[in-house]
Every structure is written in structure tokens, then in C-alpha cells.
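Q: Convert this sequence to C-alpha cells.
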Amino acid sequence: MPSRRGPAPDPNARRRNTSHALGEHDLTPTSGEGRALPKALQISTSGAKRFWRTWSRSPQTQHWLETDWSELEITTRLVDDFYLGNVRLAGEIRQRVGRWGATTEDRARLRMDFSQQAEQEATAVAQEASDLDEELFRMLSE
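A:
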């Protein structure tokens, strides 16, 4: 039997931290227009340009302040250097994008939620498909 560390859990324990200090972030899964890549950054690799384009249009940016955009600029420079061969920057880049919610796990930790918007869009798509079916049936019946 594996040994336990510390005292046994209380059978009547209640979780007291049910809400996050920063709250939850409801995001729309649609991409925005984004910002243009600043020429002053002098980005030379297509990978870094794609990185900027992807992040500048991501749903998370709807909540960003200028300081967040500044962090994206710095991170894009790091990504450019990474694509130029400095692979030691991979860990730093991963930490930075993790704070923005790059992966499903990151978004869960940051309490970012796309589910409500996704449900609404699924309902709209289903209604649109139903309307198309009705229209097609009407056209074939004539």
C-alpha cells in the first residue's frame, strides 16, 4: 500500500474557493481582424509572421490592453529568433503563450470559456441547415 503524506482528508470537507479571483472569461470563438504587424519589429521569418497573425486575430485579444499587445510584440521577436535557429527560446515562448491561453489546458486553468458561444453557434448552424433542407424540398416539389 502506498504511503500517504499528511493527515487524511476530512470527510465533511467543503470547497471554499469556488470562484476564481479574476473571474471567468467568456470568449467568442470567432477571430477578429487583428492588428498589423509593426514594421519596427523587423520580423524576417514566415513562422513569426504567421505567429503574429494567429495571435493578433485570436479571440483572447478582445480583452487585451496595450501592455498585452506589447508582450505579443516581444514574444513575436522571440519567435522570429527561434525560427532563425535559437531553439533555446522554446521554453520561454511556451510560458508566454500559456499565459494567453494557447492550449485547451491553459484555457481551463485561466477559466476561459467558449462553450456558451459555441452552443449558440451550433444552434444557429442547425437552424440554417433546417432552412436549407426546407428550401431544397420546396424547390424539388415544384
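The chain has five helices and two strands.
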